[in-house]
Amino acid sequence: MRLLFFVILLSSFGFFAQTSHQPNVGKWQGQLAMNDRLFVPFRMEMSEQKSKLIIEIVNGEERIPLDLSLEKDSVIGRFPEVDAYIKFSLAESGNAIRGYWLNMNKKALTKIPLNASVDKTITELGPNTSVIDGKWKATFSPNSKEPEVTVGVFKQKAGLIQGTFLTETGDYRFLAGTVGDSIFSMSTFNGSWAFLVEGRIVNDSIYGKFYSGASYQTDWVAVKDASATLRDPSKLTYVDKSADFNFAALKSLKGKSVGLEKRVKNKVVIYQIMGTWCPNCIDEIHYFKELYQKYHNQGLEIIGMSYEVGNDAKSQIKRLKAFKKRLSIPYEILLAGTSSKEVASSQFPMLNGIMSFPTAVVVDRTGKIVYVHTGFNGPATGEAYENYTKEMKELIEKLLQ
């Protein structure tokens, strides 16, 4: 099946653009050339809906529909929730594309070559002797001075695998790939980051490599452990001393200094320590939108305090405005400063420090901090996400009584 390429209905632009190149709609397999030796695979699908071309990045259960536009003979596919896009042109055969991933979430613009072609592989591999399904206690950089203990949760269907890693600062979001007789590979690509996880299965152990971005890599090991857990995220960040909030530097999206005293008086408040560059923060925002819509009229306020890349307030505010609009965030978002845990910690001097973006600080109607949640393990983590959202809902309802 083929779709006339660039016969793309762009309602926001109000025109049709047309060339003779035609892509195959369906599943595509691509790769990101992170450097001259590392290629991170990614998957996408092209489809037609009401004469409109739809392109989605697919990470297992996650589907990210790109916002499409045209630039001369190239397609621009913007990620809807992060400041990043892919730019590519189509081969005359209609079976291949070549272009770049451009990521504005770093201090310097990154431009990663990419290519993709129609996926002719079998979409569901046959059974194999390796079983990775379940929960694993995984350690990244095991031989370093600061190894990171995580929990891997994986689901396997024949030769297909998907899952994620839970950490004390957030999860790795949606990973997907294939598993063979003794090896497996999973990857994810969401605009902000591209990860590749490789592993070799030996009985109830895994030995592998983890790759992030163009240069970072580390070893990881794991043992199967159905009871694997991390430290309680509600106890990692805590009230350490008596001090007041230091919100003197907060700016509204109009660039004006703001005071919060009247806005939060007699309210239950969640201060969300976040950044537009942080995918885990985006997952948390989707959940906080649900909380806000359900409980705002009962006295809940949520205030996003965003710590942004760079030092130019005008550019940071411009980015925040676009971000708030893209995600349809109903609650207040303020510019708090640069993307630094030290800056965030200085504004919450009563805490032992801010160790993660995001961090949620919950305050009762009297202004007392009653709960601090470090990091955010999102929908990809399954049970962990469900347990957290249930606990937070119960806490908010109790505080609103």
Query: What proportion strand?
Result: 35-45%
State the helicity in percent bands: 10-25%
The CATH class name of the largest domain reads: Alpha Beta
The SSE string, one letter per element, is EEEEEEEEEEEEEEEEEEHEHEHEHEEH
Name the CATH architecture of the largest domain: 3-Layer(aba) Sandwich
Q: And the CATH topology of the largest domain?
A: Glutaredoxin
Structural class: mainly beta
Shape estimate: globular
Radius of gyration, rounded? Answer: 22 Å
Order the strands across the largest sheet as they lie in space. Answer: 4-3-2-1-9-8-7-6-5
Number of strands: 23
Tell me the domain tally: 3
Name given to the CATH homologous superfamily of the largest domain: Glutaredoxin
End-to-end C-alpha gap: 58 Å
As residue ranges, the low-confidence spans are 1-20
User: What does the average pLDDT come to?
Assistant: 91
- What is the makeup of the main sheet? 9 strands, antiparallel
Q: What's the total helix number?
A: 5
Protein described:
This protein has 401 residues and is mainly β. It folds into 3 domains: 26-118, Lipocalin (Beta Barrel); 134-224, Quinohemoprotein amine dehydrogenase alpha subunit, domain 2 (Lipocalin); 261-400, Glutaredoxin. It is built from 5 helices and 23 strands. The protein has a 9-stranded antiparallel sheet with strand order 4-3-2-1-9-8-7-6-5, with no helix packed on it. It has an 8-stranded antiparallel beta barrel with strand order 10-11-12-14-15-16-17-18. A hairpin with a 5-residue loop joins strand 6 and strand 7 (84-90).
